[in-house]
Amino acid sequence: MASSLTCAGIVWAFLSFLCAVTSCVGFFMPYWLLGSQLEKSVSFGTFRRCSYPVRDESRQTTVMVEQCGRYASFQAIPSAEWRICTVVTGLGCGLLLLVALTALMGCCVSELISRTVGRVAGGIQFLGGKCSCGGWMGT
């Protein structure tokens, strides 16, 4: 298989892939904030949560659901800021993954990535990194 990348481009492709996967795993994991509530350990992120309180209408009390999962709907995310953070971080992860997979394909396919495509990919990767970091800083 011929490659359209130089040695530096191949290293960039693999590092891009590792960073994109790390960002996506961080986005999907619910361990951004840790604490306790009702004497139970709780954690949540913008996309998922673990051990969360739910109102039990039949007993008129609040009970802890001790499981991890996504929010039931986009509106179930606790605040507008967290919703914005979820969208911005998800967009950033998507852009990073798109560039990384394109770069990895460039390792196997001849003439896929030219100098111009590499520069555009670098710009998209920069934008994806800014979105991801901006989303994380918003929390």
TrEMBL record:
Membrane topology: Multi-pass membrane protein
Chain segments annotated as transmembrane: 12-34, 84-105
The keyword Transmembrane helix is assigned to this record: yes
InterPro entries, alphabetized: LHFPL
GO cellular component: membrane
Keyword Membrane: yes
Major place of residence: membrane
Subcellular locations according to the entry: Membrane
Gene3D superfamilies: 1.20.140.150
Keywords: Membrane, Transmembrane, Transmembrane helix
Name of the molecule in the record: LHPL6 protein
Organism of derivation: Oceanites oceanicus (Wilson's storm petrel)
Organism lineage string: Eukaryota, Metazoa, Chordata, Craniata, Vertebrata
